[in-house]
Amino acid sequence: MRRQAHGRHWRAHRARSEWAAAGAFATAPIRWQGERLMLLLLGAVVAFLSFVVAPGWASVAREGAGSTAESLVPLAIALPSVPPVPPTAAPAAEAIQWTTRTVERGQTLGALFASEGLPAALLHRILESSRHRDALVRIRPGQEFGFLRASDGSLTAFRFDPSDAERGVVRIDGGALREEVEQRVLQRRVATASGRIEHSLFAAADAAGVSDATIMQLANVFGYDVDFAQDLRRGDEFALIYEQVYQEGEKLRDGAILCAVFVNDGRRHVAIRFELGDGRYDYFDLDGRSLRKAFLRTPVEFSRISSRFSAGRMHPVLGRMRAHRGVDYAAPTGTPIRAAGDGKVVFRGWQGGYGNVVILEHGGRYTTLYGHMSRFASDVRVGGRVRQGQTIGFVGMTGLATGPHLHYEFRVGGAHRDPLTVDLPKADPLGGRDLQRFRAVSAPMLAQLELLGARDAVASR
Ligand SMILES: [Zn+2]
After folding, report:
1. Ligand 1 center to residue 314 CA distance, Å?
2. What is the mean pLDDT of residues 28-54?
3. Residues 460, 61: contact at Cβ < 8 Å?
4. Whole-number Cα distances in Å, 375 to 38, 340, 353, 391
5. Is pTM, for the whole model, over 0.70?
6. CATH of 304-417, one of 3.40.190.10, 2.60.120.10, 3.40.50.2000, 2.70.70.10
7. Which pLDDT score is estimated for 336?
8. Which CATH architecture has domain 92-183?
């Protein structure tokens, strides 16, 4: 019930803020529309709240992304998963008496206690004695709390989940409080989905039963090669193998994408998740090269290019021909600007027409520049280091600018280059035993994705 209600709310909101096709033309780029920032924030929230409980197996017929066929099919291949574990047995009598309350938006635990008619003093005692005070103070909408009462209505136990993998019970025995925390085993199941973009990526994902969190993950995985703000085309296709996290038979959320194919504008991109020797995971292409690159494709998410690199253009403020030696990304004031790559801050301050500007140096040969910022990130200082993707400042219109945008420059050996087309060094591929392991892991998943494609083809006949 709760999930459905939330699901409806989410969909209603999302309908206004999805990656949408600009028109009905095959070549028309699919653009971001308003509320993109909101979407990202909500995307993060979705990671916590698994709104979408649709089955993972879904295939989309060729006639359109709107039609969906779902079927439960066992995976015949060995994939990383944890075997199901039977739910922890609880005394039947106790289970019946627990009442569960779900946190609503803006609700505090204090408000929840008050609505249950429980004294604030009791909550204070629980907070004081609990080893999980932090988890109780910072509660999230959708979280569930349990209350167990004696026949006279007094509270005898309070139940909460400090994390996905833990369940805490505070027993209230007269004046004494006793906290028990048990570990709960998470199960990971493997699901597949595929879809074709007709109107927007999110509509296609919806039709395929894929959650927004997973689609955001897909955009991150391919984010070095595909600009999801600019490059999406009608007819683009995706197929995924991904994990779903369950707890005691109930789906908590979607987990990691294990393997994905994304066909963008006729180009096929493949990503395979692979564990490196040290326990870290990364995504690799078919040749075993990391998809991660030294530079991000776009330093501002959820933006559109408002002016490209050119040898000469009419300057909108100066009113005369002038080379535009960077790319402009229009975005609302305050949108975070990300460091394109790991580097060192060599300048942070005001520079004429650039207004507030940050210049980063990346290993001596490469320099990136970010202009017209409304303000800088507080932890960005000259001489300090920044990580790729780290927020270094915020979009604004300081200096010579007619509207809020980021002016982004990319220099190689001091010479200005077009950041959208400049050739960047590729990562070294996996080698030796890692490559062997990679081939062994990727082959069955790729075969599975091919099968998904074949199923679609069969469906369209
Ligand atoms: Zn510019």
Report:
1. 12
2. 40
3. yes
4. 20, 18, 15, 11
5. no
6. 2.70.70.10
7. 94
8. Roll (3.10)
